[in-house]
Write a structure and sequence with these properties.
The complex is a heterotrimer. Chain B is mainly alpha-helical. Chain B has 17 helices and 7 strands. The two termini of chain B are 22 Å apart. Chain C is mainly alpha-helical. Helices cover 73% and strands 1% of the residues of chain C. In chain C, 51% of the residues are buried. The chains are: A alpha/beta, B mainly alpha, C mainly alpha. At the B-C interface, helix 6, helix 11 and helix 13 of B face helix 4 and helix 11 of C.
Amino acid sequence: MTAAPSLTGDLRTGVLPEDAVIVRARGVTKRFGGLVAVNEVDFDIPRGAIVSLIGPNGAGKTTFFNMITGAYTPTAGEISFDGKPLITKSRSKVRSKKPHEVTALGIGRTFQNIRLFGTMSTLDNVRVGLHVHMRSHWWDSVLRTPGMRAEEQASIDRGMELLELVGLETRAEVWARNLPYGDQRRLEIARALATKPQLLLLDEPTAGMNSSETAEMTSFIRRLREELKLTVLLIEHDMRVVMGISDRVTVLDYGEVIAEGTPVEVRANPRVIEAYLGRGAAAEA
Amino acid sequence: MTAPTSPTKPIQMGVIGWLGSLAEAAINVPSAYRQNFRRHPRRTIILTVLIVFGILYPVLNREIFQPWNRQSSFPLPFPEDAVVTFMMILSIMAIGLNIVAGFAGLLDLGYVAFYALGAYTAAFLASPHFGSVSVVLFSQVPPGFPGIHLPFWMLVPLGFSVAALFGVLLGAPTLRLRGDYLAIVTLGFGEIVPVVFKNLSAVNFDFGPIHLVNANLTGGNLGINPIDPPRFFGITFGSNSGIAAVYLGMILLVGAIVIARNLERSRMGRAWMAIREDEIAAEMMGVNLVRTKLLAFGLGASFAGVAGVMQASYQGVTTSDFFMFSTSILILIMIILGGIGNIWGVIVGALTIAFLDKTFLPYLGQRFQAIDPNLPNPSQFNFLIFGILLVVMMRFRPEGFLPSRQRAAELRHAPVGQAIGSAAVMGDAALASEEQADTLAAAQVEAVEAEEAADAAEAPEAPHDDADRPRDGT
Amino acid sequence: MEQIAQTIIIGIANGMIFALVALGYTLVYGIIELINFAHGEVFMLGSFMALVLITTVFKLTADTPLALMVAQVLIVIAITMLATATLNVSIERVAYRPLRNAPKLAPLISAIGMSFVLQNVALLIFGPANDGVDRILPNVNVLSVFGITNVTISAEQVFVALVTIPLLLALSWFVTKTRQGKAMRATAQDPDTAGLMGVDVNRTIAITFLIGGALAGAAGVVQILYNNTTVWNLGFRFGLNSFTSAVLGGIGNLQGAVLGAMVLGLINAFSDRYLAANWTNAIVFAVLIAILVFKPTGLLGQQLADRA
């Protein structure tokens, strides 16, 4: 993992050199039958940056997320992560890496509507995140070899570490479905962190939270970037969060990028204001 | 699942380390037992009595129950040795199907195919069937005897592997299908395999170096017999050998339980649980869906393969008539009745259904006949009863009578995803249920501690006093 | 050459019976995404009911005057269809409706249980042996009218067509032209929205089962008069073939079910004649697996989600 570059200066798509960028997307398009959800989007994510992706509902933000993680295959375009291509084109057929392959490469994510494993304990939810980097085979498990047991113990230790990071270590044995809402969100992040990501995709991490929780989450995300040297891509609707921590903001509307820049620049952009106000949604400036 | 612990002593690597951990686990058994007893005295005693009774049953049966039956005017339905052996065989299959359907949530309606594959593997490799050759290896059969004759301890891993191989072959193209389609495809496989075995009795095949004229490959309708019974340490374990076979079956069953338990409490077990809960989220967390499902499918199949080897070797005969769709459903009923997802549950289910099917209903039939020969014979309508049982169970208690906690929760309450997703809407209201969550959590901590004690036998750590463990929030 | 033509004719005739049963499968699957395992047994019970009516109640034989025969056959068809329709609706009420919100595999398992129950009921009442009736319809070769004698289309085969084709047309009219049919199609597409638009979803599902059951009953009557035999496990073979027909044609698609049934009728006929009846079931299963693996949407069907 490279050290976080100085995050001043122009962080917009296309400006930084290749090695300073962790995700490089060019011409990404997604069509669902006749509907174009994402249209020729170019998108860079600089290493060590916190980038926010905003836009009115239905703008294509989650669809774009899903293409980075491999859940959807783009209709056209290319995406590369850490220099490795996620999308390949063979004889006019676009192929995407599968989600579990993408996760193994180092992209972790949380979900807009929490998707925890409800009847598994908090600790076990995190340990599922550790699965992808564990090496025990089934025969190791059957025989309970020392290697397997060491790995299991290490997964418990690491799991507890991650729970401590999000403040859930006292709830390790509680079933995920029984956690209060705020804890569930934090558990999702812990689980995503377990996959040893270089890039963390957070889909509306502060949805449903009150102001103090939002502030907590915001500073937590900042800590993630500082302490764990992560790059973060956020989908957010809460402008306080966006303004508060983003190094760069990209605005989508109708599947296209309509503005990109620092939070201050974007906020004042007339097209952005129109996109929000024009739909009847008040700009939370 | 193992609870978080304070840093433990480092784990010794290598074969010595492994043997050491086995020894430690064995030594820990008495203290783990004592802990269980302290915590749940009644349950522990009942279980102990049942297990001891089970182990002694064949002897008790031979010495006490059957002689009593013979001279009594009102005999009781004590299962005979053959039935008890089959109970063991069926339990092994129930555990295997539990891995596929219970752990990974895949419905396999053609499970009997793997049973057949195991049985025919034994039949091919331990009988005079291929009479034109003579391959005798480590077997009590005299050298030069026609046919292939491998010993039982070779047949078991071979049956395991053959079934696993076919499981993977079947699963690879089909596991990506949705649940009900997968069920149908497996049903089809379960039908095709026995039909193939039944019909390859007069094969004419002429291609390259292979010239077969009217070759009886599989014994056709009549099947293959005789098949060598298991024979080691000077003891024969066949159907004519009294109670020895029952104990062989028990040993295989214990092996099956250990393997299944170890799989459950491993990285794979957690992956299977995650897939069952939310496949898409699991994939996003890095779980390779295809490979993980394939593993469940193949490993589950291999248990049936071993069961098949036992069946063929024990009975000395095997034919495709033994392997019908109704057998697949019989195993399914066992795991649904007993408790899908719970290893002990499915064993109880297997023993119960096997008892009903092979001892109790025939017994009732005899009693009815004694009263009036015109009364219907219940054992001919066993599947009427089992069918009703299936409908009733799915309606009223789909998690079974000894449910695994997870499955009960999944099946009884709203779909998990919904319950959690709606929290996003509730927002602050969800926070108000914090207290409720804490109460529930405290109850869970208690339940987990009980499991911990059982775990102490497996994990190489000194059982510690639970009063010191940090309690949840409250 | 005549053999091939004859085999084709047999295939089509049996295919029509498959079609009637296949429609039941495809209608139900289209509307609640459930494979009604017990449907083959409803057909089987229909055939037994027809058998009882023909032999015991009406005492139809080959000597019955034609006009009376036709009238009685029509009555038998009507009664049987009513009975099997009622049976199918009851099964839905008892075994499937309570599980509407359960995980998808629960009603499937319940359906399997139901199938065993019905098989055993038939076994209990009628015993394990084949049951049948001697040829009733006149023994004529319809083609002899055209001077063709080496290929036969029997009166029974014409009868099969006479029953099946009107029913198919009636179904088609019902589904496309009536309000209830529209409700069925809407519920099949999106039950929640249909409910919001005022469709009584429960009733619509019940009507679907009613129609499917009725068609199976008609198939049962045809089975008795054409194949002249029935047995407690007849439902397995017919269920397998009919379900495969529905999948081949594209599950949820009515024309597809009929098309698939024709193909399967032909497969059965050719396999029975040129291979061996032993292998036919296995071949049908192989076809089913192949379709599900390589083209799960079938020949005429729409895209269904790969994962449940």
